[in-house]
Amino acid sequence: MQEKGECFGSCRALQTPEHLLLHCKHYKEERKRVLHALDTPVLTVQQLFNTRKGSAALLGYLKETEIATATWLLAAGAL
C-alpha cells in the first residue's frame, strides 16, 4: 500500500518535485533526452528553472511525462 507522500509504483521514494524531475526511475529515459538537449552530464533544478534552454527542456519533459495531470494521476491509480 502506498504511504502518504510516497512515489507511485515500485519507486517508493518520497514524491517531491525534485524527485520527479531528477531522480524518479519511472522517467529515466525522458531525463536522458533532457540531459542530451542540455548537453550536460548532470541535471539540476537550477538548470531547468533558471535558464532558457533548461526551461524549454523542462516544458518538453512535463509534456512527455504528463506529470501532475489527470491522465498521470489516473494511470497511477491516484484518482
Written description of the protein model:
With 79 residues, the protein is an all-alpha fold. The chain has one domain (17-75). Helices cover 56% and strands 0% of the residues. The protein contains five helices and no strands. Helix 2 (28-38) runs antiparallel to helix 4 (52-65). The radius of gyration is 13 Å and the shape is globular. The protein starts with 16 loop residues before the first helix and ends with a helix. The model has no long low-confidence stretch (mean pLDDT 89).
In brief:
This protein is mostly helical. The protein has one domain. The chain has helices at residues 17-23, 28-38, 45-50, 52-65, 70-75.
Describe the protein's topology:
Layout: H1 17-23, H2 28-38, H3 45-50, H4 52-65, H5 70-75
Helix pairs in contact: 2-4
Helicity range of the residues? 55-70%
How far is the N terminus from the C terminus?
15 Å
What is the helix/strand order? Answer: HHHHH
Instruction: Give the helix/strand class.
Output: mainly alpha
Question: Stretches where pLDDT falls below 50 for ≥5 residues?
Answer: none
Number of domains: 1
Tally of DSSP helical segments: 5
- Looking at how many chains there are and whether they match, the oligomeric state comes to single chain
Percent of sequence in beta strands: under 5%
Shape descriptor reads: globular
Major sheet size, sense and barrel closure: none
Per DSSP E runs of 2 or more residues, the count of β-strands stands at 0
